[in-house]
Design a protein that fits this description.
By secondary structure, the protein is α+β, with helices and mostly antiparallel strands. Helix content is 51%, strand content 22%. It has helices at residues 3-30, 33-47, 57-63, 121-126, 147-156, 158-187; strands spanning 68-72, 77-79, 87-93, 96-101, 107-113, 118-119, 133-136, 140-146.
Amino acid sequence: MSAVEEKRSSKTRFDYKATMATAQTLYDKVLTGPALIEHESRVSVLRGCEFFDDLASAELNTLASFVELRAFRAGERVFVEGDSATWMAFVVEGKFSITKQGTSQQPISVTREFKSRILGEMALLDGENRSATCTTATVAKLIVMSSAEFDRMSNTLPGLALKVLRNIAKLVSRRLRVASGMLVEAAS
C-alpha cells in the first residue's frame, strides 16, 4: 500500500471511529436516564402480559414505543359508557368492573376483567363511543395504546399491527362465543 493510500485508509478509519463515537454519544443521550428506564419498563411489562406471548423479543421492544403505562387507584373510573373512545388497554394487574346502563338507569354488571385481558378494544376497532363503563375494583395497571398510535403502527409496521389485531380478534371471538352460550342458556 502506498503512503497516500495508507494515509487515506487511516483517515477513513479515523472518520469511521469518530462517527461511531458520535453515534454512541447520541445513543447514550437519547436512550439513557428516564427515557431508557421507561422504555425498558414498558418492554418488561409487555413481556409479562400473556396477550403478547406470541410476539418475539424484538417485536415487544418495538411495540413498547407505541404504548404507555397507566396506574389507577381502586374505585377509579377508567372510562364511561357513551364517552368517545381514543384508546384501548391491556390489563397488567388489578381487577375491573364492567357495567352497562340498564333500562331502569341502574348499572348492570356485565363482567369483571383481570390480568391479561383487554379493555376498550371494541371502541378502538369500530370508532364508536364506549359501550360500557369500566371502574377499577383494585389498584390497577394498564398498558394503553391510543387509536393514533395503533394507526401509526398499522402504517409503519403492518406485520406487527396484524399480530396485535389478530390477538384482539381471537379475544373478541372468545367473548362472543361465551355471550352466545349465555343467550342460549337464558332462552332455554
